[in-house]
Amino acid sequence: MDACGKAQSVRPDRRTGSWIMPWHKSLLRFFGRKPVATSAKFTIEKRRGERVPAAMSVFVYGRVSGVPFAEQTETDNISAQGGLLALSTGIQRSQTLLLTNLQTNEDLACRVARLAITDKGKTLVGVEFLRPAPRFWSIEFRSAGLNSGSLR
Length: 152
What we know:
By secondary structure, the chain is mainly beta. It has one helix at residues 22-30, and strands at residues 11-12, 19-20, 35-37, 42-44, 52-53, 57-64, 67-79, 82-87, 96-101, 106-117, 123-129, 141-142, 150-151. A hairpin with a 7-residue loop joins strand 12 (141-142) and strand 13.
């Protein structure tokens, strides 16, 4: 029942076929959580820290089939644990890369945590630092928990 006492319909989600209450999505969005549909229920996407939208210039070094590559790009978003950036070089998940922050000239090893291909043929790469480096982006992230990444 909703706040007015009317019965709410329960219907399958068109994309996933999972059964959800219509107000679940809006409630999760209100609290800043992304709903993730599963076959049986809704779950909340969990992250170690919050992402911050930021276009930071970086240089990425790595190897593809033993051949070294280097590419300059920008981040889409960043966190205390890593970032998301677009690359035109085809890389593998779990591959180790060297990331250089062009503002500070600081280098940091990271691993490829996620890959997604865009419509334009670029690869969106989620990278995770191999060692803690909360100041790599020259932004001070506040700690609300053990691994939080909110801005101060």
